[in-house]
Write the structure tokens for this entry.
Amino acid sequence: MRHALVLGVVAAMAAAPWPHALAQTEDPVSAEFDKFREVLEKDNPAELWEVKGEQLWRTPGGPKKASLEKCDLGLGPGVVKGAYAQMPRYFADVDRVMDAEARIVHCMITLQGFTYAELAKAPFSSATRTPDPVSIVTYVAAQSAGMKFAAPQGHPKEKATYAAGKEIFFYRAGTFDFSCASCHGVDDKRIRTQPLPNFTKPEQAIRAVLGWPGYRMTGGVMHSLQWRLTDCFRQQRFPKPDYTSETLSALMTYVTVNANGQVYKGPGIKR
């Protein structure tokens, strides 16, 4: 069934028209890939990382032999239902805005006794290893499936972080003089067969956060949004931001707030 669907997608791509300006909602190639992804997500391998993440959340670990069940993701200690859809957000105990992965890493340090250096040494998935924070954030994210994004903007630092994220989004630099907006700040741009959503528009900004964390079919591994944004900086030829840095949380705040009110479907599948 899946092989037949792949062949159908390829055939549709070959037959699809290529007008100079094609609206995001009317792009037949993108629509075929969305159908392909929808079928695969019914048996999404991300569930394997979700199960592992729940085990890591509940099982005592680290030098302190503690679980993460007292970790406060913004809705109270241990509450994971709906937390992912309401992040990034301000946390008074650190006096900064954090995204979900940054907060989980913070809890692993404060509650379980890990050091930042060991968690940041190799923070992203490879063919042979999935870091624990990636599995945990997959579990946490899955508990917001079907809920609307509602990243808060009530605290002054949440508003300031959104403004900083917007500035980062439009900042041009590097050897190519690129910014995030070079690819995602205007309508009807495309790389090869892939349309590039305009993240400044609410109806398209959802594409920045939907499906993350995501199972990448081309690598067979699970990746978080921290990884995706870090790789975008690499592609822009920018210096790599520190893992769980305020730079990454600010950029996530900007795109997530732009997508507020739209439904999060849970961990997804990426090409």
